[in-house]
């Protein structure tokens, strides 16, 4: 028996519970409310280009910030005593077990003009910041909600990097930065790629955050799709079409990233 | 990697934890607020906790959430680990498209996954004679959890030395022994992370649950979201606080027990040496 | 440790299988009623009373808005016996043949409901629904931050209050305010009138601090914002945290909503549903629910009795005068083309 046969049950599961729903979505996307074949939903996509661009832009920014913050956190965690590591890791995840809405409302109270942060700033004599209802606040909300999903996969890879490789590099006279750039970072790349998938991909379709922290004046894709199902008109055909286009674009991004990532990995091997 | 962490990195870590826990501290504080406000402090009370235990809707939805999240996380972890090992041993030509399909529940907007799964369950239910309920809720959660487990396990498999597995099999290990004795221990951190992430995804999901839970069960997130037009009750802050404190105490107990165990092992070792 | 792990996995698999089967086999028996209501919109202690009185078990689940409820009903598969949508959604459900006619012989307490709340436009024959709660939308503003006496919707469009204004975050309610401001009917299907309303919202957008729903509570209570439209009953709870807030019913008229109890098509426990509706119409239960929600019950005796326990200002908010009510308009369902226009205008406003 080969190890690859272990994937067969999951392939069956996927066929039923992942592929079939996608076929249903596609069927919705290419029909109109009368049930006849129609591409009218796709024809409307042009109206939503600005929403697409804004969503992808905010998701990219959030992902980059998650890497910039999350990578060092994972790195520092991996250097702690093993017992402490596990506890700190759980502490990174624990806030995410409090309900998403409650967390986001709490951020709203913190970031508001009359909120905690500004009261704190003015108390110590600093100028107040007007951050609520801006894209900046949306990014903070996204980074907050997705950061743990960057830290965990990166940590799990860094913690097991073969110490002998680093020592060998040191023996060869490499400095700290060079070791990081040439040894540690390339070896941790699979973790970073997983992290990007778990941050960027859900960030594109996230909803509620932009409503609560962004002031609701600029829609994101998640809100737009949600509105087709839960808005006044109930138009699952248009919602499915938008979701389908979004899926294709995200998959394209992932494909490009993996191609780039695989190239890097191979470069390391050579 | 033996060097003690620098003080600057400690400060950085503290700042990150402040960032992670600031909103949590706020929502805990307002579980003791005497009015329903989330922004104006009007006085201290335990009232919400008292009311919480009389609120059968919240308590039963908490129970549903915990059972569905634990079951879904465990099942998805086992299934996802198997799937990841299998996929990792496939040729790239098969692996890439299968991984892309596997990521679909992560990529898709939750509402689309929810609605399409609901339609699938309804049509399956018409044939197989079942209704939406705990079972369909669980299947939905497992479905969106598995990709996260795969995403957590996959990097560890990439890191795993392929020769190790081959060597084990050359030395006469069956595939099961190779799997159980060589692969699993090596990828354990990824498996555990996958389980934690899956559990987190389950506990936080609202939209997919909303469309797949049917008319008799409700998760805590569904209860919370449904309150939004009338404002979320501080009872929810109270139940979240209790959950938080419970997990924190569990962590401390586990930590404490491990310290004792380590000490015992150290003592035994020193006895042996003397 | 490893043994324990394998055991745990096996146990979980088995439990999941059993749970799945149980969910599959459990067809509702005669002693149940599945109630689907807005969250935080009922005093849940009444369920125990109902079970004691009738022996019928209440399975209670909740939704956050009419549209979420509609999407679930439309996707199918769920078996609710009692649902509590609002006016326009009821007319939509009637139009799409998604409701059962009620057998009012099982609902004798319906006679206690004020005639004002029977046979309204959304259910002109009165065969499909029994009103549960009602209320009006008004302007809520902070008298400390806005010293002027505000009496009209113009307060929401006044550049003096730029950056302190909150607006509804859904197309129907937001456009309704603009329509009222322009003197049009809230149920208009005239595309030009809707476009004019959109233009007004477009002009208003730079003045708006945020488009919100329940965040209104936080932002008004803390003084983050100064003026917003919201529901009368919710004003009563906001005032507990911030006594500077004031409620006005705008002079142009406003929207009145009626949430009513209905039975969806094909309900498995229709008789139980009617018994539950009857129970909800009774005076005692209406009083309890009114106390819990601060919304207005259409049960005449309950309303009169409850009004006596309130101070004059709160009573005036919860039980508006006939003069105010005469200027109120209740939503009805709109044709699909108009609804599409609503959504298109809304996306346009927000991108």
From TrEMBL, chain A:
InterPro entries: MetI-like, MetI-like_sf. Residues 52-257 form the ABC transmembrane type-1 domain. Keywords: Cell membrane, Membrane, Transmembrane, Transmembrane helix, Transport. The chain crosses the membrane at residues 7-31, 51-75, 87-108, 191-214, 234-257. GO terms for biological process: transmembrane transport. GO terms for cellular component: plasma membrane. It is a multi-pass membrane protein. It is found in: Cell membrane. CDD domains: TM_PBP2 (cd06261). Belongs to the binding-protein-dependent transport system permease family. CysTW subfamily. PANTHER family: INNER MEMBRANE ABC TRANSPORTER PERMEASE PROTEIN YDCU-RELATED, INNER MEMBRANE ABC TRANSPORTER PERMEASE PROTEIN YDCU-RELATED-RELATED. This is Spermidine/putrescine transport system permease protein.
From TrEMBL, chain B:
Residues 62-254 form the ABC transmembrane type-1 domain. It is a multi-pass membrane protein. PROSITE patterns: ABC_TM1. One of its GO terms (biological process) is transmembrane transport. Pfam families: BPD_transp_1. One of its GO terms (cellular component) is plasma membrane. CDD domains: TM_PBP2. The keyword Kinase does not apply. Keywords: Cell membrane, Membrane, Transmembrane, Transmembrane helix, Transport. The keyword Ubl conjugation does not apply. It is found in: Cell membrane. The chain crosses the membrane at residues 12-32, 62-85, 106-128, 134-154, 236-256. Belongs to the binding-protein-dependent transport system permease family. CysTW subfamily. This is Spermidine/putrescine transport system permease protein. It comes from Sporobacter termitidis DSM 10068.
From TrEMBL, chain C:
Keywords: Periplasm, Signal, Transport. It holds the Pfam family SBP_bac_8. InterPro entries: SBP, Sperm_putr-bd. GO terms for molecular function: polyamine binding. It comes from the Bacteria. Residues 1-24 form the signal peptide. GO terms for cellular component: periplasmic space. It comes from Sporobacter termitidis DSM 10068. Its main location: periplasm. SUPFAM superfamilies: Periplasmic binding protein-like II. It is found in: Periplasm. GO terms for biological process: polyamine transport. Coiled coil: none annotated. This is Spermidine/putrescine transport system substrate-binding protein. The lineage of its organism: Bacteria, Bacillati, Bacillota, Clostridia, Eubacteriales.
């Amino acid at each position: 028996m080969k190890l690859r046969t272990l994937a067969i049950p999951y392939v069956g599961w996927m066929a039923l519970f992942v592929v079939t729903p996608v076929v249903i979505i596609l069927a919705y996307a290419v029909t109109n409310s009368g049930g006849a074949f129609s591409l009218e939903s796709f024809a409307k996509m042009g109206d939503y280009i600005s929403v697409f661009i804004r969503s992808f832009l905010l998701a990219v920014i959030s992902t980059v910030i998650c890497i910039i913050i999350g990578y060092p956190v994972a790195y520092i965690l991996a250097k702690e005593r093993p017992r402490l590591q596990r506890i700190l890791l759980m502490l990174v995840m624990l806030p995410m077990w409090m309900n998403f809405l409650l967390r986001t409302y709490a951020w709203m109270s913190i970031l508001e003009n009359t909120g905690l942060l500004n009261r704190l700033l003015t108390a110590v004599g600093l100028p107040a910041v007007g951050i609520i209802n801006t894209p900046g606040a949306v990014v903070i909300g996204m980074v907050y909600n997705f950061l743990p999903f960057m830290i965990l996969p990166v940590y799990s890879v860094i913690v097991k990097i073969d110490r002998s490789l680093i020592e060998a590099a040191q023996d060869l006279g490499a400095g700290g930065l060079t070791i990081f750039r040439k040894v540690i970072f390339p070896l941790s790349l699979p973790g970073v790629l997983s992290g990007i998938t778990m941050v960027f991909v859900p960030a594109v379709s996230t909803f509620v955050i932009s409503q609560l922290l962004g002031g609701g004046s600029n829609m994101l894709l998640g809100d737009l799709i949600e509105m087709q199902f839960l808005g006044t008109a109930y138009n699952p055909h248009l919602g499915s079409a938008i979701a389908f286009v979004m899926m294709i674009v995200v998959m394209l991004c992932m494909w490009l990233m993996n191609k780039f990532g695989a190239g890097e990995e191979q470069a390391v091997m050579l | 990697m033996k060097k003690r962490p620098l003080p600057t990195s400690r400060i950085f870590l503290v700042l990150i934890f402040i960032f992670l826990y600031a909103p949590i501290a706020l929502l805990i504080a307002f579980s003791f607020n005497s009015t329903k406000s989330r922004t104006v402090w009007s006085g201290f009370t335990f009232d919400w906790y008292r009311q919480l235990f009389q609120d059968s809707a919240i308590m039963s939805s908490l129970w549903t959430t915990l059972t569905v999240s634990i079951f879904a996380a465990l099942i998805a972890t086992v299934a996802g680990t198997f799937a990841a090992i299998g996929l990792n041993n496939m040729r790239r030509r098969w692996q890439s498209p299968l991984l892309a399909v596997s990521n679909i529940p992560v990529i898709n907007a939750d509402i689309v996954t929810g609605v399409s799964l609901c339609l699938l369950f309804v049509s399956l239910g018409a044939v197989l004679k079942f209704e939406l309920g705990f079972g369909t809720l669980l299947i939905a959660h497992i479905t969106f959890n598995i990709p996260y487990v795969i995403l957590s396990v996959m990097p560890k498999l990439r890191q795993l030395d392929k020769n190790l597995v081959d060597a084990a099999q050359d030395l006469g290990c069956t595939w099961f022994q190779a799997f159980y004795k060589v692969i699993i221990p090596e990828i354990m951190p990824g498996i555990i992370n996958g389980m934690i992430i899956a559990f987190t995804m389950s506990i936080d999901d609202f939209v997919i649950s909303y469309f797949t839970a049917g008319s008799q069960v409700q998760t805590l997130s569904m209860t919370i979201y449904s309150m939004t037009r009338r404002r979320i009750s501080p009872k929810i802050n109270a139940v979240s606080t209790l959950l938080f404190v419970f997990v924190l105490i569990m962590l401390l107990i586990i930590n404490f027990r491990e310290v004792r165990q380590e000490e015992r092992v150290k003592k035994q070792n020193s006895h042996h040496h003397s | 440790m490893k043994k324990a792990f394998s055991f745990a996995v096996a146990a979980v698999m088995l439990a999941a299988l059993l749970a799945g089967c149980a969910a599959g086999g459990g067809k509702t028996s005669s002693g149940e009623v599945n109630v689907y209501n807005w969250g935080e919109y009922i005093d849940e202690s009444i369920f125990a009373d109902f079970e004691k009185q009738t022996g019928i078990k209440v399975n209670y689940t909740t939704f956050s808005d009419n549209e979420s409820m509609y999407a679930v009903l439309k996707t199918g598969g769920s078996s609710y016996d009692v649902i509590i949508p609002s006016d326009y959604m009821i007319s939509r459900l009637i139009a799409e043949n998604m409701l059962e006619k009620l057998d009012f012989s099982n609902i004798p307490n319906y006679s206690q409901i004020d005639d004002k709340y029977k046979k309204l436009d959304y259910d002109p024959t009165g065969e499909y629904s029994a009103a549960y709660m009602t209320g009006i939308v008004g302007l809520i503003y902070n008298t400390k931050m806005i010293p002027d006496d505000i009496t009209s919707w113009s307060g929401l469009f006044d550049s003096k209050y730029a950056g302190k204004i909150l607006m509804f975050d859904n197309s129907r309610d937001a456009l309704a305010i603009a329509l009222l401001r322009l003197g049009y009917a809230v149920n208009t299907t005239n595309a030009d009138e809707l476009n004019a309303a959109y233009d007004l919202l477009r002009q208003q957008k730079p003045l708006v601090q945020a488009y919100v729903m329940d965040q209104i509570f936080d932002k008004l209570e803390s003084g983050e914002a100064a003026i917003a439209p919201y529901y009368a009953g919710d004003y009563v709870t906001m005032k507990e945290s911030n006594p500077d807030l004031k409620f006005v019913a705008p002079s142009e008229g406003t929207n009145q909503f009626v949430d009513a109890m209905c039975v969806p098509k094909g309900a498995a426990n229709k008789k139980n549903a009617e018994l539950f509706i009857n129970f909800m119409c009774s005076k005692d239960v209406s009083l309890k629910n009114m106390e819990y929600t601060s919304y207005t019950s259409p049960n005449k005796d309950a309303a009169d009795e409850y009004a006596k326990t309130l101070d004059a200002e709160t009573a005036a908010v919860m039980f508006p005068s006939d003069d105010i009510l005469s200027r109120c308009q209740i939503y009805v369902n709109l044709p699909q083309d108009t609804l599409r226009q609503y959504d298109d205008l809304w996306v346009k406003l927000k991108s």
